[in-house]
Amino acid sequence: MRNRNDDIANAMELLARLPGLGPRSAQRIVLHLLRRRESLLQPLAQALAALEQSVKRCGECGNYDTTDPCHICGDAKRQQEVICVVKDVADLWALERAGVHRGLYHVTGGLLSPIDGIAPDDLDIAKLLERVRALGVREVIIALDATVEGQTTAHYIAEALHGQEVAVSHLAQGVPVGGELEYLDDGTIAAAFRARGRMGE
């Protein structure tokens, strides 16, 4: 039979699995929540339960939302002929926060990495190619991390789109080598987005 210590230990163990948290941080969070049951713990538990029930993955772009297609894909005012490719939803949200893109998005779900055994079939690239053809996309903006894996993935996508009537561009100045989009400030993202260049240039 579980006791209160088991419940506390389980909560701390689960929190410690979150990015940027370790056992000590998890312990501090659990204690903080227990001290503020009514004002924080209970509302948080309800919010997480609602999140689990209502949020789903968009079948088009891979974003998280309460609707499928998500509010971005379903917005007729967005530029349907421009798709921005990102590694994950955190990058999509970073670009939306910066307010630099008014087109659609596509989440690959990761980056190519032969060392880690991540091949094209492990990413959502085939769906991207389908969307480009179906929507008559004129430009694909590749907004992937400025890492070896990001560049490898970008070149793979550019090659896959070769021969189609679509411009392929990439983020330019402002993104440092090894930089990840979700950690960049809005101004840096905006500068890189505006100064994007054609792939291969």
Notes on the protein architecture:
- This protein has 201 residues and is an alpha/beta fold.
- It is 43% helix and 13% strand.
- It contains seven helices and seven strands.
- The chain has helices at residues 4-15, 23-35, 37-54, 89-98, 125-135, 148-160, 186-194, and strands at 56-57, 64-65, 79-86, 103-107, 139-142, 167-170, 197-198.
- The termini are far apart.
CA(first)-CA(last) distance: 65 Å
| Share of helical residues | 40-55%
**Average residue-wise pLDDT:** 89
Number of strands: 7
Q: Tell me the overall shape.
A: elongated
Cross-sheet strand order for the largest sheet: 4-3-5-6-7
Order of helices and strands: HHHEEEHEHEHEHE
The CATH topology of the largest domain comes to Dna Topoisomerase Vi A Subunit, Chain: A, domain 2
**Class of the largest domain in CATH?**
Alpha Beta
| CA gyration radius, whole angstroms | 20 Å
Helix count, DSSP H or I runs of 4 or more residues: 7
Our estimate of the beta-strand percent is 5-15%
User: Any guess at the CATH architecture of the largest domain?
Assistant: 3-Layer(aba) Sandwich
Which blocks of ≥5 consecutive residues have pLDDT under 50?
A: none
Number of domains: 2
**Structural class by secondary-structure content:** alpha/beta
Report the biggest beta sheet as strand number plus sense, adding barrel if it closes. 5 strands, mixed
